[in-house]
Amino acid sequence: MPIVQIQVLEGRDKQQIARLIASVTEAVVESLEVRPEQVRVIVSEVPPTHWGVGGVTKEKQS
């Protein structure tokens, strides 16, 4: 059973997350030749205060 974990910044709507899950599931099904029911996709949203790039939080970059 493939498990895919994805971390994204907070702020995307439910439809975007649903499309992401569907697209990733499809890619795993095709790549690993498994059934969609076997694929698990976990999307974790991270606040900009907890995401750093180049030593600075995304909150401060905006």
TrEMBL record:
Supply the alphabetized keyword list.
Isomerase
4-oxalocrotonate tautomerase-like domain ranges (all copies):
2-60
Which one of the record's GO molecular function terms can you name? Answer: isomerase activity
Q: What is its EC number?
A: 5.3.2.-
Q: Enumerate the active-site residues.
A: P2
Superkingdom, taxonomy of origin: Bacteria
The answer to whether keyword Nuclease applies is no
- Family from the record: Belongs to the 4-oxalocrotonate tautomerase family.
Q: Indicate what this protein is called per its UniProt record.
A: Tautomerase
**Species of origin:** Brevibacillus borstelensis AK1
Lineage of the species this protein comes from? Bacteria, Bacillati, Bacillota, Bacilli, Bacillales
